[in-house]
């Protein structure tokens, strides 16, 4: 028996009409907007790292996760006010060479991360990554590029957990498994030739390079890392160009680990996005890197971290400044060091830049806008401007005048949320780290 057709109530019919639906949606949008909390930061000194210029007594208005307005603007009546009138305010900082899911234990591993990779399973390394990510964020690093050494994709798990706001951490790019000729950065024994997996993805032919890049992308890598030259056999210019082209098809860039003159030359000639380390890069290849828009991520260890290479590093920093090659700040610290968090040890790398006499404006660009361009996030991060993410840090002094103040970040905001806000230290001693990095 057919049921009688039920007539809609006139109001229900109205709500389902096209015009009513549009009006209803607008009401919801306006209501949500009205509920959004506005935060106003009083910035005593506002630093623009691009120019090195400072503006006094600026107001930063923040809504949600983004900056709404900056300048000498009125503070809305119901805004939450953060008073940084006595501080220098700047964009969140970048570390373009991290290994958050690798923590070398000095006593157990004797400073050799090969032992770490054998003894620490991927789930543990992901948990270590959570702790290291939090420490980096609290030190002022709001964006990092994590270039591998994460076991079986612990870095992808960490990045996704940060993006889903399960754990606090910087905006993160990750490399997954590092791609390298056989052996990677290890020296293996014939009867134990598999011990380098899954730390490295061995790829010696074009087909293997292709497979390694595609598997990394499939498992969540957002940047590709190549080890060019840690064996007697190294990737050729053509090998690296092949990898750069394949990564680019998926919108990814290539970071090339290169120490030796030949490895640095091949990477610079191939046009990678960045050369990592580059300790022995020649002046000619610094010029080639500049010509090919290759960024140097120098991992400039202090004398306490790496006494063996420190002198070479300082000289290379000076040569890179003279060559005017683009540089992005990267640290590569991995070892547990008493008295330091992962973040504070990473920040200690500024000591090498100071020792080399690198202009503080160059350092600040390397830690912000140049790093943002390397990471491909310059449209959303790396500067303070309307519409960009509210990634903001504050230091007691102006780092253009005294870069050591970067070790005393006392305010950190990430995507509009306060991560750290403590009393500033306006008088502080210089401090130096100890311990040695393994890479």
What would you say the CATH architecture of the domain at 93-382 is? Alpha-Beta Barrel
Q: Give the beta-strand count.
A: 16
Shape: globular
Helix fraction? Answer: 25-40%
CA(first)-CA(last) distance: 80 Å
Number of continuous helical runs = 15
Provide a quick synopsis of the model.
This protein is of the alpha/beta class and 439 residues long. It contains 15 helices and 16 strands. The chain has helices spanning 10-15, 18-35, 106-109, 113-119, 122-138, 154-163, 206-218, 237-249, 261-270, 283-291, 310-323, 342-347, 350-355, 360-367, 369-375; strands at residues 38-48, 53-63, 66-71, 80-91, 93-98, 141-146, 171-174, 178-180, 200-202, 224-227, 254-258, 274-277, 295-297, 392-395, 411-414, 417-421.
């Amino acid at each position: 028996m057919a049921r009688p057709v039920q007539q809609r109530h006139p109001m229900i019919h109205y709500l389902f009409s096209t015009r009513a639906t549009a009006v209803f949606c607008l009401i919801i949008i306006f209501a949500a907007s009205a509920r959004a909390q506005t935060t106003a930061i009083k910035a005593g000194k506002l630093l623009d790292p691009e120019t090195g210029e400072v503006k006094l007594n600026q107001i930063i208005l923040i809504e949600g996760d983004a900056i709404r307005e900056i300048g000498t603007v009125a503070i809305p009546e119901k805004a939450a006010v953060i008073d940084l009138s006595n501080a220098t305010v700047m964009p969140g900082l970048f570390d373009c060479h991290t290994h958050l899911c690798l923590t070398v234990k000095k006593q157990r591993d004797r400073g050799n991360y090969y032992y770490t990779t054998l003894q620490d399973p991927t789930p543990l390394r992901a948990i270590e990554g959570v702790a290291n990510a939090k420490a980096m964020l609290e030190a002022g690093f709001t964006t990092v590029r994590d270039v591998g050494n994460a076991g079986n994709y612990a870095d992808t798990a960490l990045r996704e957990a940060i993006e889903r706001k399960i754990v606090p951490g910087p905006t993160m790019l990750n490399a997954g498994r590092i791609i390298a000729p056989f052996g990677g950065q290890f020296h293996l024994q014939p009867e134990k030739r598999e011990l380098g997996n899954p730390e490295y993805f061995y790829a010696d032919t074009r087909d293997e390079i292709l497979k390694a890049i595609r598997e990394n992308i499939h498992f969540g890598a957002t940047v590709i890392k190549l080890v060019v030259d840690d064996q007697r056999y190294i990737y050729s210019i053509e090998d690296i160009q092949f990898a750069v082209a394949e990564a680019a098809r998926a919108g990814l860039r290539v970071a090339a680990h290169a120490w030796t003159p030949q490895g640095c030359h091949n990477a610079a000639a191939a046009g990678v996005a960045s050369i990592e380390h580059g300790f022995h890069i020649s002046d000619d290849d610094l010029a080639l890197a500049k010509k090919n828009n290759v960024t140097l991520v120098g991992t400039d260890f202090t004398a306490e971290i790496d006494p063996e290479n420190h002198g070479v590093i300082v000289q290379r920093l000076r040569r890179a400044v003279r060559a005017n090659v683009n540089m992005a700040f990267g640290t590569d610290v991995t070892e547990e060091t008493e008295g330091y968090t992962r973040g504070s040890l990473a920040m200690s790398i500024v000591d090498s830049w100071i020792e080399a006499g690198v202009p503080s404006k160059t350092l600040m660009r390397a830690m912000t806008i140049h790093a943002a361009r390397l990471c491909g996030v310059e449209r959303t991060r790396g500067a303070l401007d309307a519409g960009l993410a509210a990634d903001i840090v504050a230091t007691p002094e102006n780092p253009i005048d005294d870069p050591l103040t970067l070790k005393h970040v006392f305010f950190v905001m990430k995507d509009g949320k306060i991560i750290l806000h403590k009393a500033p230290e306006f008088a502080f001693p210089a401090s130096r780290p100890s311990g040695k990095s393994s890479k």
